[in-house]
Design a protein that fits this description.
eight-stranded parallel β-barrel, homotetramer, alpha/beta, TIM Barrel, 11 helices, Alpha-Beta Plaits, four-stranded antiparallel beta sheet, 14 strands
Chain lengths: 337, 337, 337, 337
Amino acid sequence: MLIVLRPDVTAAQQEALEQLIRSRGLVPHAIPGVARTAIGITGNPGALDPEPYRDLPGVADAIAVSQPYKLVSREWKPDQTVVMVRGVPIGGPRVIVMAGPCSVESREQVHEAGRGVSRAGARMLRGGAFKPRTSPYEFQGLKEEGLRLLAEVRAETGLPIVTEVKDTATLPAVAEVADLLQIGARNMQNFSLLEAVGDLRIPVLLKRGMSATLKELLMAAEYIVSRGNPNVILCERGIRTFETMTRNTFDINAIPMLKERSHLPVIADPSHGVGVRSAVGPVAKAAIAAGADGVIIEVHPRPSEALSDGAQSLDIAQFTELMAGLSKIAEAVGRSL
Amino acid sequence: MLIVLRPDVTAAQQEALEQLIRSRGLVPHAIPGVARTAIGITGNPGALDPEPYRDLPGVADAIAVSQPYKLVSREWKPDQTVVMVRGVPIGGPRVIVMAGPCSVESREQVHEAGRGVSRAGARMLRGGAFKPRTSPYEFQGLKEEGLRLLAEVRAETGLPIVTEVKDTATLPAVAEVADLLQIGARNMQNFSLLEAVGDLRIPVLLKRGMSATLKELLMAAEYIVSRGNPNVILCERGIRTFETMTRNTFDINAIPMLKERSHLPVIADPSHGVGVRSAVGPVAKAAIAAGADGVIIEVHPRPSEALSDGAQSLDIAQFTELMAGLSKIAEAVGRSL
Amino acid sequence: MLIVLRPDVTAAQQEALEQLIRSRGLVPHAIPGVARTAIGITGNPGALDPEPYRDLPGVADAIAVSQPYKLVSREWKPDQTVVMVRGVPIGGPRVIVMAGPCSVESREQVHEAGRGVSRAGARMLRGGAFKPRTSPYEFQGLKEEGLRLLAEVRAETGLPIVTEVKDTATLPAVAEVADLLQIGARNMQNFSLLEAVGDLRIPVLLKRGMSATLKELLMAAEYIVSRGNPNVILCERGIRTFETMTRNTFDINAIPMLKERSHLPVIADPSHGVGVRSAVGPVAKAAIAAGADGVIIEVHPRPSEALSDGAQSLDIAQFTELMAGLSKIAEAVGRSL
Amino acid sequence: MLIVLRPDVTAAQQEALEQLIRSRGLVPHAIPGVARTAIGITGNPGALDPEPYRDLPGVADAIAVSQPYKLVSREWKPDQTVVMVRGVPIGGPRVIVMAGPCSVESREQVHEAGRGVSRAGARMLRGGAFKPRTSPYEFQGLKEEGLRLLAEVRAETGLPIVTEVKDTATLPAVAEVADLLQIGARNMQNFSLLEAVGDLRIPVLLKRGMSATLKELLMAAEYIVSRGNPNVILCERGIRTFETMTRNTFDINAIPMLKERSHLPVIADPSHGVGVRSAVGPVAKAAIAAGADGVIIEVHPRPSEALSDGAQSLDIAQFTELMAGLSKIAEAVGRSL
């Protein structure tokens, strides 16, 4: 069971509550967040009844743990959450397109990409500076230099930046530049990193792990929100299955299921979701038709020269053409780009 | 390697060809089809060069087996195939909606469903008479009586019928009534059944197996087409993954990948693909946005009373509302319902 | 719910029972088997209470359908089943090794294989005559000629034969020769074939489908046993996962789980389970260590020349060496080869 | 391509080499390790020929990147690696059993467990102090207090300790106590953590990710070894599949495949691999039969009271009985406990 304390709880009230819990043979665990503190209870043989705890002094709510996530659920907050990213609302009536290269590779490349996607109507710029790579021998990004280049392009185009943070050590550097912090699929259950971004107020784009269930994705989001950062955007990016013709299997079901279960915005990454250039557009359209609040698409000025993910990147012309198609789908579901 | 014989090949030409193959230490296997015969060659240690076989008398083509499917591929036939089902074209500019109950349960139920989906704009009626069931103790369909009821509704509404054929023994009975023969997911690699429907000319709706790769689906279609029945429609219906919040994982990637690799029409089954009523509509829209030539949707007058698949069936009102949404998506991709 | 009738039930008793069911607004479905008949009940909104049916005239038992399999379960029959295959007991204290080529390719090949595996201590000969193949252009077996060759080798070596039956059409031919009828993975849910072998008394080796859950495997076995054929042997042969270094993922967990849930013998197919020659031996040992009642192994006199599955076949020398290793493992778990 | 520098390379040699690479239009990336530095090359359109680089001053080797792992491969080092953990050799002729509770919960519990498994013949003690948990509301371990208790039990029993390190922040605390640092499945691709343990010399137990391929596991190990820590032990702990009767699917194939491809020791975690108490023993036996160098088993004095993983924990009596069975299997494959 989880006891959520009121923001104005006193130290004495909290101490009294923990005493009470211990006196019943249970173990209290304080879970401090920036906005509020909660007390988890363990040591109970079966389910606990939350009723007797709800009216105690300093207590905001008591939650049965049979619900493994709560703060991110629609039951808890029926209204759709809109996350503001440097003035761009995500989760509102407009469908947001984020685009840019997988990795920042050079000043020329990222400027060219930024200008191109901006002209085509993208609302945010994506680009990786710190790249987690499967092999230690692969290109791992331009790091701080990459962040500086992204900031340059933002200054020029006005596009907010989404970029990946791969560990707590480089979080301060990334957080200084990023408007939206991306947690990659491999880090979806890096709980220390989740807690660290939960202690900030910068919006977080949380990608689903390669074999994470939707319930696990929601629990990962709960880690962030329960620390006090409510600005979480969920991202479906394809799961690992037996199919080998595509890089991943984009789980289109995830879009309506997550929208129904959670009030958080949901965006789609069709580039990783299918991993085949010619199919990125159709999958992006599908995601918007299914209710996604946005899409994030890999675009490179010259995909054949890309240091990573070239096979799934669109060039500027292909992206520009796709934008027209996405716009029509958005209108068909009562929204706009 | 596969040698495709000309329709006018003579017995003497075929015999001479088989002799030649044997004289090279290889084994010829005649693969008779209704429209044409092919000769498969085995016993070769590595890849064979098809060139020397192409100009022999009676030979239409020689195909390297490194391509495990051929007749269904876009390379072989770049033009999109349109399959005519009792006057309804599948694979053309119009997106076709097939709808009706999982199982035919009673005269009243199937008439009510038929009238309802017809009024809402469906172009075909689905309904199961012979039901393959995981447990021997589950309802296995009304069988011949079910087929009769489907024919009644067709007579009333004019909607062509798609219904499942579960084995070769009941194929004659089903083929007498069905306008489109459905091969279910569990039978995708029931090669004897594939060959049997390949010897007919009735259109076939071939559902992807629960853990079949797209390549395997195309090879299963090749079984049917290579027997002489070119009227095959592919159907994505969700694959089995680790996710448990949904019944299956609808593989949206399959739509553009199949359309690119094959000239056959591709339709989507969102009902089985997600298995959760509230998500059927969004997934159906997604499939059309991604390029599907049609969708097949489970509709029941009273889903809560359904003998099978109630949790994923829409009622008539829900289906009618969905049709308006599907129509808008079809227009957004330059098609119509 | 399922009502199992007594073997001596009279037509009048059965009719009265069906009347009673209908009078309660439910639908009776007779499920005839060779040994006994059952009546399935559908049309009930929720779970039915079996109690009121148990004492009716002609009724042997009433079974709540919440248990999707029953006759194959340990609860129903706590004693381990031993299936006799032409004098070879499967499920008893001795671990049975079945070996031979994937496909029967020639007289010389199958005789050489048969003699070799017999000398090495195998107790049964495996070999495919009718081969289901993913592509229509692959070698599909020697068919009737293959069966004749298997019978020749049995006459010479005394080894009983296990061979695959791929459809109901060829079942009579296969059943005339086979001592153990193999149902392949792709046919695990070919219910018509399951029913057909359920109407015989020849032992059946039922392979798990490529993506079948253990529960579904048990329900498939229930199809056979509920028709009156109790001689079913379950076979784990690897499932389909994301891993690409091996052909399948052998599910070692399946061995203890099936042995615990069911009284039927369980054997392992390490050849398909891993699909890499060097790993077949270790996986075979693992299966016996985990409690398997036998293993079935692909052995070919010259694997490099095999028309199918060469990469996973052992040669005679490798198999002979492996037998010594298997024998030690069998002894370590208190059994013998 | 990867250029491995000699330990005695001079700064001038390294600079000259990087100049040469740039002069060819390529980009050098220094990858510093404790024991040696390597230079990765990117920016090449196709595969590079390593030959011209091998004889340059200061170069130890040049490696084509088509091999995504190298230092951990059998080709690189044919001899089996034996990792010494506080005097206990892992990878040698003796099969090592590690046992203990999932989480350290109290002094009494961990002492009781430690004494029990020691008496039964375990060679190492496992126990979690810092616990990564899927939900933020679950028990997350006794942390530093847990480490102190483990050290107490080591002092009493002499058993070396294996315990999980969940992030770089707590690595120093864990490294002070642990004899073998466990990287959990969720952290297999937490590259920052891999690099951090790669900079130490404490042995590392690297668990396979829930949906990691064997190739990815080997690349994760390469991260550690390429930083200079050669003391890596691979651990198969079950993968995520569609099967729901068990917690995971233990990939028995992984044991022989990893042993063949890599010189690193391989151990098995049957507790997580199957997640069902009654099946832990059979799967442990299977792993040893397949060639595992050890097993790690969850044992709790009173599993029904465990705060985590109770359903898969053995009690002391069950573990003691299992040890006798494991010993027989070890002997059957020519080893001993």
